[in-house]
Design a protein that fits this description.
Blueprint: H1 10-18, E1 31-32, H2 39-50, E2 60-65, E3 71-75, E4 88-91, E5 97-101, H3 104-112, H4 117-122, H5 134-143, H6 151-161, H7 165-172
Length: 174
């Protein structure tokens, strides 16, 4: 990572560089950022989203959004661990929340299986039609060959490890 802390891990940048096919709402609704949001940008969004001026969202490193402005981020919950080992979460513009992958490696396989952060949060109760992406599969295979899981397995494992994420977020809201 560079000196300002905004550079993304290379595997994340590579995966996001492939792009996502929205397919008129049946595909992946995700717009990755070229860099992590700056802390003041995250704090501004977080305070507006929660209605709580006492929180700043510093435990999140935001890396993209869906079309409505919901944010995808790493949740810095594992003390002392690198960002690649932190869970990936989604904080929706309409209040949807969810842990979508246990770490970057699982996130790469989630993308390869045709899911973005919003689709994983809403899984299985949405109209998403996942299409595995060969280009994303190649990236996941190169960076995380020992972590191969289906989207269902990625989402299930994340939800099992962090079953109270929604409650934590709700406790920060006013």
């Amino acid at each position: 990572m560079d000196h300002d802390g905004r550079s993304m891990p290379v595997p994340l940048s590579e995966a996001h560089g492939v792009g996502f096919d929205y397919r008129n709402g049946a595909g992946v609704d995700f717009e990755p950022y070229p860099h992590f949001l700056e802390g003041h940008e995250t704090a501004e969004w977080w305070r507006a989203w929660t209605g709580n001026a006492e929180v700043d969202g510093s435990e999140f490193r935001v890396f993209g959004q869906d079309g409505t402005g919901g944010l995808a981020a790493f949740w810095l919950v594992r003390s002392g661990e690198p960002i690649e080992q932190q869970p990936v979460v989604f904080l929706g513009s309409e209040g949807q929340t969810g842990v979508v992958a246990q770490n970057l490696w699982a996130y790469l396989w989630l993308l390869a299986d045709g899911f973005g952060p919003w689709e994983a949060t809403e899984y299985p109760d949405h109209e998403h039609e996942p299409r595995p992406d060969t280009r994303l599969s190649e990236i996941a295979e190169r960076w995380a060959p020992a972590h191969r899981l289906s989207a269902d397995e990625v989402i299930s494992a994340a939800r099992e490890e962090f079953p109270r994420f929604d409650e934590l977020i709700d406790s920060m809201c006013r």
